Amino acid sequence: MYRRVDIYVPAALCRQLATDSLQSYPALYLIHGINGYEGAWQDRGNAIDTLEAQLARGACRPMLLIMPDCNKWPFLERPVTHGNAWKCVLHYRRLSREHEIEQAVSDLIDKIDSTYRVSDCAIAGLSDGARISANVAIIRPDRVRTVGLFSPVLHKHQLPQDTTLNYAIYAGTRDIFYGYAKRFRRRLEREGYPYRWVELPERHTWEMWRQCLSHFLSEQMPANDEKQ
Fold this sequence. Notes:
About 40% of the residues lie in helices and about 20% in strands. With about 230 residues, the protein is α/β, with parallel strands linked by helices.
């Protein structure tokens, strides 16, 4: 299956590419939620504007934004469920594309690495996209070191063997999936994984996830990061 991806290169990196600089830079993969599409993080999450605002403040490093289409429905079938969350949930378990999508993201990581001079990778996802992000980190511990989980909906067997993986969990206190985030936090504590826990007084909405992204950029990918 062919999948689309949006790639954003900030102006600072464009100048490096134009001068053929040997300096490397990070890549952040943003994964949308159930029934999303490759433009969701920009159209509704303001991802590019958020990154540019953080760069202007000197709060984070210049980075590539990679926003792939991780929808479980084939493209031509999406009008049936688009905009209908309950219909998505009703038919969710009929779909068996989870591993297919995670492998596609893993393949995309290799493609981006071969095209750009990427130093390190981070991945962040919202809701069901957090589950995909956690699983990609499991199959790609060689590249992914930081995982952002925004309003995560996670299963109990989503911890890799490498305890150096860093989790950043953002939970809305009024979110319907707040309990999932707390249970995952307890598993991290039992296994000794490093993590960052942030609670926001929000629901399971884009208002919540826009704040999550802003926090994640400045806290997990700061401008003074030693990897720079």
